[in-house]
Amino acid sequence: MALYEHVFLARQDVSAQQVDALVEQYKGVIESLGGKVGRVENWGLKSLTYRIKKNRKAHYALMDIDAPAAAIHEMERQMRINEDVLRYMTIAVEAHEEGPSAMMQKRDRDDRPRRDGDDRGPRRDFGDRPRRDFGDRPPRGDRPAREDRA
Predict the structure, then answer these.
(1) Tens of pLDDT along 48-106?
(2) Which of 38, 41, 34 is nearest to 73 (CA)?
(3) What residue ranges do the domains of the chain occupy?
């Protein structure tokens, strides 16, 4: 049997419990055809880069699957039929990752540097870059019009 990572996007107006029910439904399809589902991660409701079927957000879910190709084809066929599933992608992998996926390892908002300047480093010094010298140029209001300058 081959190893797969499968991600699907569910409509924004379904609840988290309905997404869990979808995961269980597709898990049952895989297991009934001789496969196993390992790690299942629900990444939650996230904004989409562009609209998909009039949805601006979607529920993301990841499944690590060890199953024959026929089980994957049947699960994808059922996903095409289901109106709650916007997109899906299945990728064959050499080995499943241990621990949480990259999406679950993202830093919390509290760990990010603050934007009000408290966590910023010192301002950069541009002392090594030469500045333009304007010499004895008169103030801007006293300069002649452009066509008078030569």
Answers:
(1) 999 999 999 999 999 999 999 999 999 999 999 999 999 999 999 988 888 777 787 77
(2) 34
(3) 1-95
* 40, β-bridge pairs: 63
Residue 107 Cα distances to 102, 111, 112, angstroms: 10, 6, 7
- What fold is seen in the domain 1-95? Alpha-Beta Plaits (3.30.70)
**What pLDDT, on a 0 to 100 scale, did the predictor assign at position 42?**
92
**CA-wise closest residue to 47 among 78, 12, 13, 23:** 12
For the chain, how many residues are written?
Answer: 150
| pTM recorded for the entire structure | 0.67
Task: Please report where in the chains the tokens 């084809």 appear, as a residue.
Answer: 73
CA–CA separation, 37 vs 4, rounded Å? 10
Instruction: Name the residue with tokens 């029910």.
Output: 21
